[in-house]
Amino acid sequence: MSQVQGKPILFIDIQEGKDQNNNPTYLFNLTSEAQQLLQQIGERNVAVLVIAGPQRTGKSFLANRFLKQMDGFAIGPTTNPCTKGIWIWSRPVKLNDTTDMIILDTEGLNSVQRDQTIDMKIFSISVLLASMFIYNNLGHIDEQAIENLSLVVRLSENICIQKSTEGDQKLGEFFPLFYWILRDFSLDLKGMTPKEYLEKCLSSLPGNSAEIQKKNEIREKFKQYFRYRDCETLVRPLDDESKLARIELQNWNTLRPEFTQGVINFERKVLANLRPKTIQNKILSGKMFLGLVQEYLQSINTGGIPTILNSLESVISQQVRKEFEDARAEYLRRVNLVFSVDKLPIDEEKFNSTHKAIVDDIFNMLKVKSRNFLDSEQLQVLRKDLQEIMDSEYKIKSTLNTQVSENNSLKIFLNLIQRLSLPTFANSDQIQPNFLIQKYEELQKLLQQYNQQAQGNFKYTIFFQKFPGKIFEFFNAVIGRIYKLFQEDIQKLKVKLQQSNESQDLIRSQIALFEKTNKDLQTEIDEHKNIADQLRRERKLYSAESGGQVDFGKTEEFEMHIDKLNQRIDKLKQENQELQDTLHKTKLDLNDKVLEIQLLKKEIEDLRVIEQSGAGGEMAQQLPDAIGALKDLKQQITQMDDFFSSRSTLNSSVGSVEQHQQEFELYRQEKIKLRLDFKQKLESYKQLVESEKEGLKKNIDVLNSYINELRAKNMQFITQNEEWKKKATVYNDLSDEFNKLKEAFAAKQSNIDSLSQLNQQLQGEIQKLQERQFSIEEQLAEIKIENVEMKSFKEDIFDVMRESLRLVQNKNNSLQNALKRLNEKDIKQLKSCFSSVGIEIK
């Protein structure tokens, strides 16, 4: 152990005064510096080493040796005491990781400047406070040395165990280990150990005189009060008397080696056996020791006597209150820190586990800090009171966590749901087939963000309460907008349908006109045939009349004219047939368009049915079909417009009948051209229709696959929603199971605490057994010493008995000689007297 820096400070100051009757009074005050020192030790255990003894015996020098110094506590060369009151070193000495040692140097006993009242008070306080009491004495143990310990007899008058108990039989259980140090010891112990020498000196003296009884009372009381005692001897440190008076000025290495080695061995023995201050297995900390000193001094200053257990109970009660308040304050500090509003909300499972960890830490801290002065039953009561506060605070924080979770979850949900913006379609053509898929994916992302951002046990409650309504509200608004666009398109389709009907009527009238024209052409052809027949008849008649002489020039001209007419007739027939075919095809196409118009009407009726059936989930499912049907309807109307346009072109190409009659050739050429144009347009129209049909089929297939995919997504969402509900149910079941496990764990923890307490009790019992073993060993040593003394006593008694027998024989001879000089009557009286006391004289 290295040198301990510091200085001696007054521990207990003794103030002298006078009362009203001029009698001396004494007040024992704990100094403020000493209070600060003990408060600095705080919760560490404290071991108290007290050094006492008669004045001018070197107590302070011995105290300094435990500080590895020569001049720590004051040492003086005069007969006046240097130490008044009780002093303490300003810095504790660290014994181990949990314990500090404080050294108390007391005022010398039997001082000529103090009366025995002061000595008794100082001795009583020192014994009460000490973990180990070192009594320093010069020379060997003689009657004067034992007489100096006469204060021991009066300890029971100045110290009480408990107010409700009487007697001093158990005072020894509360007194410290007693070390008797014999300085300047020069006797030869003849093989005895210092402890054996001490026990021999404490043996009762023979005799029944008042003086012997008084001396034996000191010995008996000393052995009764200090059950654990030992002795050490030290030779004189220097031979030079002048240097011995100022030993603190001497170099340690200049002292006698036997002395220094003896001091070193004694220091080791003291430090090895020094234990924290303990009362009834309750180890005192620095703060508890401070409270105990204050309790003792208050009792002395108020005219009472220190009561050990009552003072201890008061100190423990104060310490319990302090530990309770410290644990409560630490719990509230940690709870307010971890569960502050800015850190909430927290998931319920994490909230409970965090709170449980705090509670366990607080209880473990309380257990560790109070294990030295509280038994298991008292600790359970303290835990119960603290648990009530914890349960109340837990409810407050849990409610706050729920409220914050509800508010934050709702705020996060509303912020996220606002990101679902309603579409701004100008017309139905802008509605894409994957529109719902996009919104579904957007919704999935929002749900993931909500699950990541929202915390606390109200997270799922808000979701199940608010999500379905908001989502349905959003999609109802979307479908409402789409429905409105469909309504507008239906109105447009109705207008176009009306226009189609009017165009159809126009085409019919044109067809009728065309048929009339055709009929007129047929009539013209018939007329031309009649003219040709008439010309033939006229030719035959002219030939007959002219006798066969014919103007061959005219005849050839006429025949050429007839041939032209026949050719024209054939051409007209052919054109007529072609027009008939074209008319037939036009009628067929018209019939097809009539059927298409009927289909369009049916689709419009279907849209009306959809309109009347309302929106909702069914309309959301039919939305892609309606979009496709609407586009098909638009395309068909476009095709009809093209068809009617081609019919108008045909009608304009026909021209009027009168113009055709006047310019037949032009009409024929235009007819041929019209027929070719019509065929080309018809062919291109058919190709367009076929390509559009193929495109529509592909679109229908795409829409069908999209509808199937959308339905699958919808089913997946429904399934996921069901899974969430199941998870919520499972979570509630797990929460109930967790509460049950928590209760079971609390019961197990209680059992563990009980077992731990039982273990502590067993440890205490083991310690008591060890102390009992130590006591038995001491008693055995005492018995051995007594045995040695008895052997010595037997040897001495035999010598005494032999000497006594010799004396008795001499006396007997003298008596016999005297008897011989007596007469018979005197002899009889004398024998009768001896016989009455049991002595027979022959």
Automatic annotation (TrEMBL):
The keyword Acetylation does not apply. Residues 43-279 form the GB1/RHD3-type G domain. GO terms for molecular function: GTP binding; GTPase activity. SUPFAM superfamilies: Interferon-induced guanylate-binding protein 1 (GBP1), C-terminal domain, P-loop containing nucleoside triphosphate hydrolases. Gene3D superfamilies: Guanylate-binding protein, C-terminal domain, P-loop containing nucleotide triphosphate hydrolases. Residues 483-589, 657-825 form a coiled coil. PROSITE patterns: G_GB1_RHD3. It holds the Pfam family GBP_C. Keywords: Coiled coil, GTP-binding, Hydrolase, Nucleotide-binding. It comes from the Eukaryota. InterPro entries: G_GB1_RHD3_dom (IPR030386), Guanylate-bd/ATL_C (IPR003191), Guanylate-bd_C_sf (IPR036543), Guanylate-bd_N (IPR015894), P-loop_NTPase (IPR027417). Belongs to the TRAFAC class dynamin-like GTPase superfamily. GB1/RHD3 GTPase family. This is Amine-terminal domain guanylate-binding protein. It comes from Tetrahymena thermophila (strain SB210). The lineage of its organism: Eukaryota, Sar, Alveolata, Ciliophora, Intramacronucleata.
